Amino acid sequence: MATFLYKLGRLSFRRRHLVALIWVALLALAGVGAAGAPAAGNSSFSIPGTEAQKAFDLLEQRFPGTSADGATARVVFKAPSGEKMTDPGNKATVRETVKELSDGSEVARVTDPYQARAVSKDGTIAYAQVSYKVSGMELDDASKDALEDSAQDARKAGLTVEIGGDALQAVPHTGSSEIIGIAVAAVVLVITFGSLVAAGLPLLTALIGVGIGVSGITALASTLDLGSTTSTLAMMIGLAVGIDYALFIVSRYRAELAEGREREEAAGRAVGTAGSAVVFAGLTVVIALVGLSVVNIPMLTKMGIAAAGTVAIAVLIALTMIPALLGYAGRKVRPAGEKGRLFGRAKAQDGPAKPNLGSRWASFVVRRPIAVLLLGVVGLGAAAVPAASLELGLPDDGSQPTSTTQRRAYDLLSEGFGPGFNGPLMVVVDAKGSDDPKAAFTAVGDEIKGLKDVVTVTPPAPNKAGDTATITVIPGSKPSSVTTEDLVHGIRDAGTDVKADTGANVLVTGSTAMNIDVSQKLNDALVPYLVLVVGLAFLLLIVVFRSILVPLKAALGFLLSVMAALGAVVAVFQWGWLSGLMGVEQTGPVMSMMPIFMVGVVFGLAMDYEVFLVTRMREAYVHGEKPAQAVVTGFRHGARVVSAAAVIMIAVFAGFIGSSESMVKMIGFGLAIAVFFDAFIVRMAIVPAVLALLGRKAWWLPRWLDRSLPNVDVEGEGLRTAADRGDGDRELVRA
């Protein structure tokens, strides 16, 4: 592989005009496609195999035309102080609003609060339910505008009016903190390279890669039902890995220049060595992201595949466009150790160079491996303690910022009707196989009334055929609470008894039940996902490092860092520690897809640092250094660059903490803290300590396995051998 990438690097350096033209053309093509595509909405939330989804599908069959999965909106009215919603003037305003709402072409029906008894007991709050024929993703802007205009007209009449539901789902924005993250990355790159030109190359290529990836996602959003969150997460991950991959190749290029090689030769060797590490690091990230498809949740699968595509583009750009841009930069990118005008020229040194900070730290760890290992493991273990209290759920309007109308509508409904009113449960009774459907409907309603935490049970509403009915259940607790989850399970257990007695099948659905089913599905998929992704990456790392213990150590270190990161997420978003600093207005359960998503993404990113740092150690070991000295050599060459890459990745992820979308905010924080734990505690402390303790055993591989594995030559041994023969690069190019 090193030989092939070496040739690719030299070719890209020489044919830089063609390479740059190809990537710019791809960016322009993706941009044109994105500009002409419909805006992304919120992807449909179909969860195959869950009871809630089966109930939705049954409703489509038995209640045709009701649009069971259509968008909904609750227009909530509150009377001025001292007045009631039943006063004649307020009543007339509400009915006029209901009439306006009914005129929309996509509106299926609108309920009158006074006919539907949707007025609170104290008479101060009422709501109108608007049901649409299409889903929230398919809802036209004209329908959304009409909804907001109707509410505004009622506000002019003196009422407080807020709108809840999924009809007004807004595209999340990340705020200025995302730009701050990129700015921090730029500063770190300038400090690392001491040159504006060298620092600009990783930023430029990362932005081009993300531009192509995100534009492609935007262009295909409507066709493939990709939600707005998909492009945000692809941007988050694509920026981070794009900058890092380019950073490693530029750093290796400068190191090759410092050894006296010509620029084209240095570019080829940088891509042949550091580029090999980039390929395998990128493969681990892609495996982890594509592996999310095993969960069988379409939205999560699309998010993973889209982000994986952006990572693949980042790898290709690093391997081709970076050497092309290095050709354009010429002497403006200086050898390692030689500063540009920005920091002054480097002075020639008399005698050997002094050990850098990475060398001194590695020497300290090698001398005291047990103490460093214990301190790192205990520290991460302490950070992981809150993870034992992890509660999972999916965000609802109660987790929105208080500045949004959805959150204010949620609070008004809780005030007027109780917290459970924001998460009604829909019970579908399929009595097609029952001898007496009406008796079955009544039996189900009676069973539910006897359960705990039930406030209201509506009478059964049968379809025209009389073989299926719906029953609405209002819990006493808020939608995301454990009590409401227990009630859903209680209704399903009661339904089993009813089926035995009457032959009717009972299904529970609605957004609350769907969220509960999603959480359970994610929990069930976590272990198989871990086995698949970690197993595949473990085999890949065996090929890269030609060792059993090094990949095993890498996987165990990842588990430490991801558990510590989950503990930090629980402490902030569930317990409320530092919630004000993070902009968390409402604590609650951790998003149910957070653990499995964090496992996938963090594992891929953790392996990046493992590959970049440890391949340098193996390179030194293969070339004759003792194990302890190889660790120090690896840190001398790689610690500064890996540290810079980690700071950049943390800055990029932390930039998304400013997002208005609670899911993006939580993922941004979780990934940032996970990279910090993994890069600076696991890879910088635990890894060298373990390698120092293992010595030569770290690089042991059974002979039969060594013979059967392909030699991918990540260390660039083939390049070094050709040079050592004295044939030079001409011989290598002919190979």
Descriptive notes:
It is a single chain. The protein has 735 residues and is of the alpha+beta class. Helix content is 63%, strand content 7%. It contains 24 helices and eleven strands. It has helices at residues 2-14, 16-35, 51-62, 88-102, 141-156, 177-193, 196-224, 228-258, 263-290, 298-329, 357-367, 369-384, 405-417, 437-449, 482-502, 511-545, 549-574, 579-582, 594-622, 627-654, 662-694, 703-708, 717-724, 728-734, and strands at 72-78, 107-110, 125-132, 160-165, 392-393, 425-430, 454-457, 461-462, 468-475, 505-509, 590-591. Strands 6, 7, 8, 9 and 10 form a five-stranded antiparallel beta sheet that branches. A hairpin with a 5-residue loop joins strand 8 and strand 9 (468-475). The longest helix is centred in the last third of the chain and has 35 residues, at 511-545. The radius of gyration is 30 Å and the shape is elongated. It starts with a helix and ends with a helix.
Nutshell version of this structure?
With 735 residues, the chain is α+β, with helices and mostly antiparallel strands.
